[in-house]
Amino acid sequence: MRVWLRLCACLFGATAILLAGGVAKAQQPIRIGVLLPLTGPFAKNGIENWEAMQIARDMINERGGVNGRKIEFVQGDATSPNAAISETERIITKDGIKITTGSFASPLAIAVSQAAERHGVFHWETTGAAEIITRRGFKHTFQVGAPARKYGQAAVDFVIEDVAKRLKKPASDLRLALLWENRAFGKSVGDGIRAYTGIKKIKLVYDEGYDQFATDMTPIVQKLKDEKPDVLIAISFPNDAILFQRKAKELDFNVAAFIGVSAGYSSPDLRNSIGDMVNGLFVADFPPKVNPNVLKPDVRKVADEFYKRYEDKMKRPPAGHAAAGFSAVWALFTEVLPKGKTFEPDELREIALMLDLPEGSLVNGSGIKFTNFDWPDDPKDAGQNLRASIGVWQWTKSGNDQVFPPKLATHEAAMVPLPVWSKR
Amino acid sequence: MSIEPLAPPKKPKRLPVLPQRGKLSMFEIALFVACLVLIAVELSQNLRDVMVLTFLFAGLGLAWNIAGGYAGLISFGHAAFFGIGAYTSTILFVSAGLTPWIGLWCGGVLAAAAGALLALICARLRGPFFILSTLAAAEVVRIGALNWSSLTGGPEGLSILPVANVANMVFVSKTAYAVLMLAYVVFVYAITKALEGSRYGYYLFAVRDDEEAASAAGVNPLLVRTAAMGLSAFLTGIGGSLFAQYFLYLDPTFVISPELSFQFALLPAVGGLGTAIGPVLGSFLITPLSELLRSYLGNAAAGLHLVIYSAGLIVVMLYFPGGLAAALNRLGRGWKRKP
Amino acid sequence: MTTLGQLVISGILIGGIYALMSIGLTLIFGVLRIVNFAHGEFLMLAMYGAWAVTTLLGFNPYVAVLAIVPAMFLFGGIVYRIIISPGLDKPHLVVVFATMGLSIFLQNVALMMMTADLWDVPPIFSHAVIVGALRFKAELLLGFLITILCTVGLQWVIRATYLGKAIRATVQDGEAAMLMGIPVPRIFLITFAGGSALVGLAACVMMPLFSVFPTVGLNFVLIAFVVVVLGGMGSIEGALIGGICIGVVQSLSSYYVAPAFGQMFFFILFLLVMIFRPNGILGQKGAATIGIND
Asked: How wide is the angle at C-alpha A32 spanned by C-alphas A27 and A38, nearest 5°?
């Protein structure tokens, strides 16, 4: 009898241990490398993105994780392209990471994906935009955000379809000026706009790039003033955006519509820095918040939760890139990973290529459909999401309103033409 | 600093223990063997990465040392030569299909020409004037590379497709890179050693320590300086090509950055200026330290690893001015004195 | 014509700002014969200080001068004691790397404490000054006037006071000055602290014009180096001329060539001056070719 009891106890114990082991195995977390600039010149945006991604991680883990497995982040500080490569190498080789995401800025995205591809690691780029990211023939790099050309196209389409009408001029008569900051993103968007305006037969009356360390904007603003454009599209980083706006006021340079592209003009800090001077400026970027009617009902719920959590944590609404960061990793957690079994990069690649999500499937209004060397416009392109939404929103007195494209818009564009400085 | 008196020629019965000018020592051989062992043993990929960088920067520090340590040309523009080397081999490879095994020599030669030109431009400048002029020259090259985008890819940079192939000098295993970088170190080290013992080496010391006396003795300081800068730039350019083959991505903002120039000068300064072993010791200390600090503290708080690193740097610079090489010598002397 | 006038005037005014932030550097450069590679970070620190005084206490940034200048004097003195003074008798590279280490240190301490956010103070004057067709910010004009005052005042100190005489004697021949009973180490301390205090002044003038963030020093430090060497090491009125040169060259080249090359032209100008007039526009004769500390 005793022997039996003991035997039973042993068996029971062994089963318990086995079961516990089995459960533990099933609950082993999925580890994802997050490469963002947490120090250096991009740190501000990197940290905002990191907060947004952490919210996504917490939300998915509270919902029980991915097929019962929790998500765990391993962080890398991608300050510069070089650090991005080292850090990516580190988290891949030291921590055995097979999935990476990030990385906010284009030069960092180029670097991170380069290192990831070398190790055959699956890289899910959230916001990097330079065209070259998906044109190097990489197999495991997926760019969920929009390519640089799309930012430019959104800005130019907005000018043609909306601004021109409000100014009561045919689009071809508009004097359009283009100013870009000479870094990967600025140049890439600038190239895209130049090509697109060429197709649309609109002449650029001004087209210049400037160095990231520019401390005096006088020559740029003066030259623009001499060219008298109706509409100016500018791609700037936060510091130069502030310098430019202040100088434009100083020299009384007026345009009928000003469209900033992403980065500097979409950062919520801009209002802290230049105050009411932001009112009326347009921004072509990832939408920070879209018209909820375009979202699928379940996505709308996720969106509400995200915006609430972000505002509670950061005391302000997320910028477009932070919302895009959240949207992209949320799609990774809910659309890609649940279909995986081995979580090996090749398997994830197959899943990603199968994705066919209509617009409105992601929190920021995007859908997902990746290119795979099959896109007629550019057959070299692989892993570029063609359904990322880029819209135009406008700084208003109290916040910002999505104004373009009409489908995503929550408001009509206002303040066109933009009042001259003495009346703002 | 002064010229060491020429030792009377005597046949060494055995190798000296510690590094000496122009001679091979047991310490150097032991260090080389240790490097080989490090390459051979099983290490995590992460440590391998640190090792590759340590070797690469040791070689670059040695290359800088020829100008900065031996000729007294404290250059803060070596990133320009590094960038010229890296871009030359990469452009030749990407657009003309020339294997980097040949391209790196082309890069070296171009960098050498740039180095000689810079030495001529700055021929009359000394001290901070020389430092700042080299810094400015490198900035000119950086802005040039940033704007000449049809050649360099501009701010979007240049990528080399990561397809492993010996002919393309692209490898999967980090061990291969470690061997490659170690070969680079040995190459630069051998040149440095040969330089130390040669007639030209003595010209260099003479010009560095007392230019007037040297030129009175019939040495042409300008020629000696230009040649030293050219040689240093040549070796730095080769290092640039190797870097490009390891990272497979070039971007002017990093490859030609002042930070990189400082890094090249820092390693010999920490290790011991004007000694062959100095830059090697400097890199063996600094490179792993900065990489490991970042990987272990990078997650703790943004910027913390750099705070610690820079505080350490200040202390080392102020309290170990002769560098690790001098400390090593002191240690050796103390050890000899004991019975 | 208006365009040219505007470019030149704006160039001169911004050049005044460049000069103001470089005077401290040139003073230290001229007397101690060292390059402070942490100069940009001193500026960054002082700008944070000016921002804090302005935003938290509600003062005008020009009033903040009263707090920031003494604070930076003290800070300069401490840095001199801890970092500069122990390195002075060592090879030149020691101070170069020690200050460079300090620069990385301060940048990252600022990052840890202030995050990477941009901070600004609201503009002081709501309207630009308009002269005919020319326009410029009143803050810029005020900054330029402060630069002129500062240059003249500093000249007076150097020419007419005992301290100034002691400084000049130290510059001419440190050993002889020591023999004459001039406390050279103290002169060094005062100069370094004074140079840092001038950075504090520059920071208060710049705060209404520029945003402050941990790496803001990088945007200005190379300009400061160029200004100092261009004007001539240790020459205060040289710094003013150098600053204006840089401002105008930058303004004109960006307009007539391309803004992407903005800084390239003044680096080329700098190299040309180094080749043909290595002592700078108003520098000490032979300074560039003798070298220092050896």
From this structure: 135
In order, the DSSP letters of B262-310 are HHHHHHHHHH-TT-SHHHHHHHHHHHHHHHHHHHHHTTTSTTHHHHHHH
Q: How confident is the model at residue A12 (pLDDT cuts 50, 70, 90)?
A: low
Q: Assess A80–B contact: CB distance below 8 Å, yes or no.
A: yes
pLDDT digits (tens, 9 = 90+) for A234-270: 999 888 899 999 999 999 999 999 999 977 888 877 8
Q: Do B311 and B321 touch, CB atoms closer than 8 A?
A: no
What is the secondary structure of A317-381 as a DSSP string? PPPHHHHHHHHHHHHIIIIIGGG-SS--HHHHHHHHHH--BPTTSSTTS--B-EEES--TT-TT-
**What part of B 5-64 touches A (C-beta under 8 Å)?**
44-46, 48-49, 53
Q: How far apart are CA C138 and CA C156, in angstroms?
A: 27
- Counting as contact any 3 or more CB pairs under 8 A, the partners of B are A, C
* Domains identified in chain C, total number: 1
Q: Which amino acid is at A80?
A: S
Contact C260 B146 (CB under 8 A): yes
Q: pLDDT for A174-212, tens place per residue?
A: 999 999 998 888 888 999 999 999 999 998 999 999 988
pLDDT for position A2: 54
C215 closest CA partner among A185, A85, A239: A239
DSSP code at position A420: P
Ordered domains of chain A (ranges, CATH) = 30-146+293-389 (3.40.50.2300), 149-285+392-423 (3.40.50.2300)
Q: Is the pLDDT of residue B338 over 90?
A: no
Residue C177 counted as domain residue? yes
Instruction: Supply B61's token pair.
Output: 């520090």
Alpha helices in B122-198, H assignment, sequence order: 127-147, 149-152, 174-197
d(CA A42, CA C118): 11
The CA distance from C71 to C65, in Å, is 9
Q: Is B302 on the interface with C (CB under 8 A)?
A: yes
- The answer to whether the Cβ–Cβ distance between A94 and B44 falls below 8 Å is yes
What is the mean pLDDT of the segment spanning A208-221?
89
Give contacts of B273 with chain C, Cβ < 8 Å. Answer: 91, 93
Distance between CA atoms of residues B325 and B25, nearest Å: 13
Note the residue count of chain C: 294
Rounded Cα gap, residues B71 and B230, in angstroms: 11
Which letter does DSSP use for residue B3 in this model?
Answer: P
Whether the complex's predicted ipTM surpasses the cut of 0.85: yes
Q: Which residue has the tokens 């208060």?
A: C204
What span, in angstroms and rounded, lies between the C-alpha atoms of A88 and A92? 6
**C52 located within any domain:** yes
Q: Which position has the higher pLDDT, B22 or C180?
A: C180
Domain range summary for chain B, segments of one domain joined by +: 48-257
3-class SS at A261?
strand
Please state the three-class secondary structure of C120-181 as a single string: CCCCCCCCCEEECCEEECHHHHHHHHHHHHHHHHHHHHHHHCHHHHHHHHHHHCHHHHHHCC
Rounded to two decimals, the pTM is 0.87
Strand partners, C212: C119
C-beta atoms of B125 and C105 within 8 A: no
Cβ C294 vs Cβ C88: under 8 Å: no
Facing C135 at nearest CB: one of A209, A250, A274? A250
Q: Is C135 on the interface with A (CB under 8 A)?
A: yes
A209 sits in which H/E element: strand A204-210
* C281 phi and psi angles, rounded to 5 deg: -70, -40
Q: How far is CA A92 from CA A32, A86, A95, B179, in A?
A: 10, 10, 6, 22
Q: Structure tokens of A296?
A: 């699928």
Domain span at C84: 2-224
